[in-house]
Design goal:
The complex is a heterodimer of chains A (269) and B (419).
Chain A: E1 19-28, E2 31-41, E3 46-51, H1 57-65, E4 72-77, E5 80-82, H2 87-93, E6 95-98, H3 110-114, E7 121-122, E8 125-126, H4 128-141, H5 158-169, E9 176-180, H6 188-203, E10 207-211, H7 215-221, E11 224-229, E12 232-238, H8 244-252
Parallel strand pairs in A: 3-10, 3-11, 6-9, 9-10
Antiparallel strand pairs in A: 1-2, 1-4, 4-5, 7-8, 11-12
Helix pairs in contact in A: 5-6
Chain B: H1 2-7, H2 35-53, E1 55-57, H3 58-65, H4 69-81, E2 85-92, E3 95-102, E4 108-114, E5 118-125, E6 130-137, H5 144-161, E7 169-176, H6 201-209, E8 213-217, H7 218-229, E9 238-243, E10 247-253, E11 256-257, H8 288-292, H9 294-302, H10 311-319, H11 323-347, E12 351-355, H12 363-376, E13 386-389, H13 396-407, H14 411-418
Parallel strand pairs in B: 4-7, 7-8, 9-12, 12-13
Antiparallel strand pairs in B: 1-3, 2-3, 4-5, 5-6, 9-10, 10-11
Protein name (chain A): ABC transporter ATP-binding protein
Keywords (chain A): ATP-binding, Nucleotide-binding
GO molecular function, one term (chain A): ATP binding
């Protein structure tokens, strides 16, 4: 790659987080899914959220997406305390999520999927040409390998569908993109595609929250790794200074980075 | 057209830069405003699109390139008669369609480049025309077994994506970012790529893909690629620098790449440049690599910062005028320049080619290298070896890996395949 291909928009190094979660707690009846979880996301940074099953990753992601609301704790977005009451509010703020099931419409083509719900109109008429032009622009920026934007999504491969879902998340130019298990159930070539895509997102200056079980993928693209264990933070690490074994140790609880406070002396459930 | 495409080796898709026979070929002037020029532009658009996607139907080609289906059909017909493209009947959404791929007579070869943080796999014919390629980021301390597994799966995917068969693969070349002992086929010195120590890499990969596999150091292979297709073409004595996380040099003397007794020739990164410097991954103190490798530079830049920057961030910051970043890159460049001057005084090369990931910093790095290099040379001005940037971009090692596989092919076999 030559220097001319680099995106020179000023973006790094940002010292202020674009999004900052403090003391997030969420209970489902008697089950405490999250207790006092902290998370910072900086612009142009990939934060991996890892943890065992039931560690609270999905709950946290759903709070960010506006599916659930936290019982306690604050979310600061671009230096303002915000409440994310529903998915539309999350989108409006500039938090865009891609879930595991992708939620694409198989019977529609790529363009229709990208702009579903906010079609571009001119004079009250849907402007297909403009939408197609913008779709190409977006997919090209992501270097996504989509042969045609008029293909029905049903005909695309797993990696291509993931690319479309990620591209759709970028339509409203969000500040933070949340990806829930984007490489699960993909082949090697498609995983490579998605990981490259995540690097593009980073270069475009988005803050990326990347939930994954695959630590090889995490170590390949993440700048920081946030470990959750039993609903609590169990350490935040820079990928530069951490080994695979360190992450496993934090996930399984072999090492303790402040997670196992005594549950009986802590706030009542 | 056929001859032209082959002669230009494997240009980077879409970049317009074409490594040719003559090293200083300027960007081909694109005549504008007439029918022939338009047709030429459309042709290259179609070839670029096919290269990018591996295989496309004609309808998809029309969508991707924005050309009319009739134009696509005409150009594809023309290019397949001249042997550049290959078409095969297929179906798309239940209708008949023409699937278009780059033509690959003589079978295919695979080149793999494993660097500290990336894997790059390219599928090419025996004339270096890359049919399809994939890059993927790797974890910091990746391991031979899992990465070779990944590579094998990726190759299978890629073969399928260009409508080829496993049998068409004639050979695999692997470039690794560490010296390889030609006797044992393993990394020549422990500790340089920890996850790959003690593994007979070529054998291990050959078992996975079922065809002959060859392995060598990526700097040596980058030198081979520059010699065949890039900035070292037609020259016999050249030093090719690979500046990345590690630093290596591929040394060409008398038209051949120097391997040395154990395959560690050209390990410029482990020349001690500062006896009081930081400890290197090889265990010595103050190696060039520990002072001027990308990792080392980032360590310096990131010390005392709460948020770590990565290499792209550093280059962008430097390009937009950040003094600290400019200085960090320039310091590295000067250290490299001094070391290369020493090497050039010993070897007396015609050219020094600067490549590797760090070369993406462009003149920010090459300027200081040149300055320190020229200051340290023994020769009179006027007879200085030229210091130039790579013409192959980041693809030199993978093209070198392809060259390694292609060189090992039995020519007789090829002739029989060709009939």
């Amino acid at each position: 790659m030559t220097t001319t291909e680099l995106d020179l928009r000023p973006r790094v190094p940002a010292t202020e987080p674009v999004m900052s979660l403090r003391g997030i707690t969420k209970r489902f009846g008697a089950v405490r899914a999250l207790s006092r979880v902290d998370l910072d996301v900086y612009p142009g940074e990939v934060v991996a959220l890892v943890g065992d099953n039931g560690a609270g990753k999905s709950t946290l992601v759903k709070i960010l997406a506006g599916v659930h609301q936290q019982d306690d704790g604050t979310i600061t977005f671009e230096n303002a305390v915000v409440s994310i009451t529903d998915p539309a509010a999350a989108r409006e703020l500039g938090i865009s999520s891609v879930f595991q099931d992708l939620a694409l419409c198989d019977n529609l083509d790529v363009v229709a999927n990208l702009f579903l719900g906010h079609e571009v109109t001119t004079g009250g008429v849907i402007d297909e040409e403009e939408m197609e032009r913008r779709s190409w622009e977006l997919l090209r920026q992501l270097s996504a390998r989509i042969p045609s934007v008029r293909t029905h999504v049903a005909a695309l491969s797993g990696g291509q569908r993931q690319s479309v879902a990620i591209a759709r998340a970028l339509v409203g130019e969000p500040k933070v993109v949340v990806l829930d298990e984007p490489t699960a159930a993909l082949g090697v070539a498609q995983t490579a595609e998605v990981l490259n895509l995540i690097e593009r997102l980073r270069e475009r200056g988005h803050g990326v929250v990347f939930v994954s079980h695959n630590l090889a993928d995490v170590q390949a693209v993440a700048d920081r790794v946030v470990v959750l264990r039993l609903g609590r933070n169990n350490g935040t690490f820079n990928t530069r200074d951490i080994s695979y074994e360190d992450i496993i140790a934090a996930i399984t609880g072999a090492t303790d980075h402040g997670a196992s406070r005594n549950p009986f002396t802590e706030e009542p459930a | 057209m056929l001859a032209d495409l082959r002669r230009t080796g494997s240009p980077r898709p879409g970049s317009g830069a074409r490594p040719g026979y003559d090293v200083n070929v300027p960007e081909p002037r694109r005549p504008t405003g007439n029918q022939a020029a338009l047709r030429e532009a459309n042709r290259s658009r179609i070839i670029d699109a096919v290269k990018h996607h591996g295989a496309l139907t004609q309808v998809e080609l029309a969508g991707t390139t924005g050309l009319s289906p009739a134009t696509v059909s005409n150009i594809v017909k023309e290019l397949s008669t001249s042997g550049v493209l290959h078409t095969a009947p297929s179906t798309r959404s239940g209708r008949r369609a023409q699937r278009v791929t780059l033509a690959h007579q003589l079978g295919l070869t695979v080149g793999i480049h494993v660097s500290t943080r990336h894997m790059h796999v390219a599928l090419a014919d025996t004339r270096y025309t890359v049919v399809t390629e994939h890059r993927m980021p790797l974890a910091r301390h990746h391991r031979a077994d899992s990465e070779l597994d990944k590579a094998a799966l990726l190759i299978a995917d890629m073969i399928e994506s260009v409508d080829a068969d496993r049998e068409e693969i004639l050979g695999v070349g692997i470039a690794v970012a560490a010296p390889v002992d030609h006797g044992t086929g393993m990394i020549a010195r422990r500790g340089l790529m920890r996850g790959w120590d003690g593994i007979p890499i070529a054998e291990s990969m050959a078992q996975r893909v079922g065809c002959p596999t060859y392995v060598d150091n990526s700097s040596n292979l980058a030198a081979l690629a520059e010699l065949r297709l890039g900035a070292a073409r037609g020259r016999s004595d050249v030093v090719v620098l690979e500046l990345s996380d590690g630093i290596g040099a591929g040394i060409v003397t008398g038209g051949r790449v120097l391997a040395g007794q154990h395959g560690t020739a050209g390990e410029l990164g482990h020349v001690v440049v500062d006896p009081h410097g930081p400890v290197c991954r090889c265990g010595n103190r103050g190696c060039l690599e520990a002072v001027a490798g990308i990792d080392a530079v980032l360590d310096v830049v990131n010390s005392g910062r709460s948020r770590a920057v990565n290499f792209t961030d550093l280059v962008v910051a430097a390009l937009t005028g950040d003094d600290e970043s400019i200085r960090a890159i320039a310091d590295a460049g000067r250290a490299v320049g001094r070391a290369v001057a020493g090497l050039a005084n010993v070897l007396d090369p015609q050219r020094v080619v600067v490549g590797g990931e760090f070369a993406r910093a462009g003149e920010l790095l090459v300027g200081p290298i040149r300055h320190a290099f020229e200051a340290g040379l023994l020769r009179d001005v006027g007879a200085l070896p030229e210091l130039v940037q790579t013409e192959l971009g980041g693809r030199a090692p993978v093209l070198g890996a392809l060259a390694l596989a292609i060189d090992a092919l039995d020519i007789q076999d090829l002739v029989i395949h060709d009939e």
